[in-house]
Amino acid sequence: MRILLAALLATTALPAWADTISATSRITDVTVYPDGAKITREVRFTAPAAGSHELLVTDLPARTEAGMMQLAGGEGMAYGAFSLRADRLPPRGEALSPEQQAAKSELAAARADTAAALAAVEKTDARIRAAEAQITFLTSFSGGLPENAGPEQIRDLAGMIGSETLRAAEEVASARQARLPAVEALEEAQRAEAEAEAAFDSLPGLDRDYTALVVALEAAAAGDSTMTITHYISEAQWQPFYDISLSRGAAGKVTIDRSVLVTQNSGEDWTGVNLTLSSSRPSSQSAPSTLWPMARRIEKETPPEALLKRERLGAEAAADMVAMAPAPIMALAGMEGETVVYSYPRAVNIADGVEDLRLALGQIETAAEVIAVAVPSRDKTAFAQASFTNTSAEPLLPGAALLYREGVLVGSARLEMTAAGAETELAFGALESLRLTRDMPLRDQGQKGVFSTSNQLSETAILKIENLGSEAWPVRLLDQVPYSEQQDLKITHSASPAASEVDLKGQRGLMAWEFTLDAGASQEISLSYELSWPEGMVLR
User: Fold this and answer.
1) Residue 24 per-residue DSSP state
2) Residue 403 to residues 83, 234, 254, 258: CA-CA distances in angstroms?
3) Could you tell me the residue range of the domain that residue 448 belongs to?
4) Do residue 195 and residue 243 come from a single domain?
5) Are residues 423 and 445 in the same domain?
6) Are residues 367 and 225 in the same domain?
7) Which residues are in the DUF4139 domain (predicted)?
């Protein structure tokens, strides 16, 4: 039996007996989506011999998931099962990047300089204390004179005390003179140490909280090899950002400076990576929504008493009835059409969780039609509005924008998705020189603008816009009158001058007047409407 067991052990390949090859990875490429990112890592290692081995990659972030991971390798290397290991990991040593290693050496040299400068200051302080102690002793000397001391001996003793006191005082002066440059050198060394420490702390380092990737591999021969790891994370995003400037000049023009903000909280710094930004949303809805059969039924008309009883069922019963219907599938906002991808020609650094990297996408200039839009019933001033076409070959993606008019920041807005060749509108702040009022003149009986009876209501309003500035403006003034969908509710209205357009964009009752308002000029519009309905009916 023992002989059989020994033979089986000698001929059976056991994974636990395979050589373990420890290696680290380097992030080479990152594709960031509006929600999430694809990380590509390169692992270089050396297979000690042909055959089965276990590759242990010891620097993946702690939040890495194996479900969406792919492995690829060079020739002569076959990869089998792999897993992530978060416990019982081998020690990695100090997790420092090469840049941090260099900065750490500079910090150590700066600290040594500070210690040497401090020692020089302490040395001068010691000289001062020793010399001052000598002076104190000599000036306070009260010992008795030698027995039978004559004048000459007394003179020699006094001379000795005087000369030693003078020498000690000169030592104090010399030490104090040497102390000033020593203190200045210490302060400079401390500043250099603080700067070196700040430089060290600011550098992206390797992740300390990590997960290990364990891969079973089969090497055709001993030698160097490279494995590529591709995995996906959700803790990253990018969003467009715009600086949009409007200039009227001889002809209206809109300049769009495009950029993006990239943020990541993956648990590790991205250092020197090739960055690609994609508008694809792999984490969003990828299939059409599902429609459920919609049954309709009829029932006897419910009497008022039953309706009141039903209302008393309360919110809980109503919620139960709503829950019976299938829940709709909700999707994140996405873009339609082809995916837009931006690749950057230079490697970038993005630290984990501490910065938004802003990258430029280039500038677009396009002609614009600029008008002043006035809504007297709501606003006190008109607002500049530009209509322009996206003349670039790619869409303008949804994103926040800062708005400038003639070089002055006037506000912010959100630019909606604008396809290539599509037209859009943006407002560029209030025009304080175009003042608006909407007054209702007094009637004969002192009522202000409104006349009402039991089955009739009428209103008259005077809309006014004044141009207090020094330039003419094309104006589009907006107001409204009520409308009716009932045959018995009659509504008539009149305006002087007549509106240029009614029922704007299919919205009934909305009206617009278009005209040019010269500098110093004003424009008044009289707008009236009347409602009438049968006796016994109530206006709502």
Assistant:
1) -
2) 51, 32, 10, 12
3) 440-532
4) no
5) no
6) no
7) 228-535
Beta-ladder partners of 137: none
In one-letter notation, the amino acid at residue 113 is: D
Q: Which residues pair with 70 in a beta bridge?
A: 230
- Residue length of the chain: 540
What would the pLDDT profile of 23-41 be if each residue is shown by its tens digit?
888 999 999 888 889 999 9
Residues 256 and 126 in one domain: no
In a domain, 6, yes or no: no
**pTM, rounded to two decimals:** 0.60
Q: How many helices (H) and strands (E) does the chain have?
A: 5, 25
Rounded Cα distance between 449 and 426, Å, is 35
9 inside domain: no
CB 489 within 8 A of CB 533: yes
Q: How confident is the model at residue 204 (pLDDT cuts 50, 70, 90)?
A: low
The verdict on residue 486 lying in a domain is yes
pLDDT, one tens digit per residue, over 140-151 is: 766 566 666 667
- Rounded to 10 degrees, the C-alpha dihedral 7/12/15/17 comes to 30
* Tally of domains within the chain: 4
Please indicate, yes or no, whether residues 175 and 225 belong to a single structural domain of this protein. Answer: no
Backbone angles phi, psi at 111, to 5 degrees: -65, -35
Pairwise CA distance, residues 530 & 182, whole Å: 93
Distance (Å) of CA 132 to CA 124, 125, 160 = 12, 11, 17
Residue 276 within a domain? no
Tell me the C-alpha distance between 409 and 397, whole Å.
22
**Same structural domain, 53 and 125:** no
